[in-house]
Design brief:
Helix content is about 60%, strand content about 5%. The chain is mainly α and about 100 residues long. The relative contact order is 0.09. Keywords: Membrane, Transmembrane, Transmembrane helix.
């Protein structure tokens, strides 16, 4: 099954080479056409990274603890406040 990111991986070199070739055929020099192709390829990558995030299953307000169980942000903040009030940093050093 071909997904969105498979298409993105195919479009990156296709956009770089294709747009550069089209701009070169239109009359631009290769050194002027290459940044145009790079901008289109960069826009495809930016869309894949920032618009359609590759992170799956992330829900707002939860985070994973070290042991893999999910804890709410409020629980994490409460634990951090308790550590700071007791003088323990939790960094693993001898306090």
């Amino acid at each position: 099954m071909i997904g969105y990111y498979d298409y993105v991986l195919g479009l990156i070199p296709a956009a770089l080479i294709g747009v550069t070739a089209v701009l070169n055929l239109v009359g631009l020099s290769l050194t002027a056409a290459l940044p145009g192709g790079a901008l289109v390829a960069g826009a495809i990558m930016a869309h894949a990274i920032f618009v359609r995030n590759p992170v799956a299953g992330v829900r707002g307000g939860t985070e994973r603890s070290r042991d893999g169980s999910s804890a709410s942000v409020r629980d994490s903040v409460d634990r951090a406040v308790e550590r700071s009030q007791s003088g323990r940093s939790g960094a693993g050093a001898s306090d």
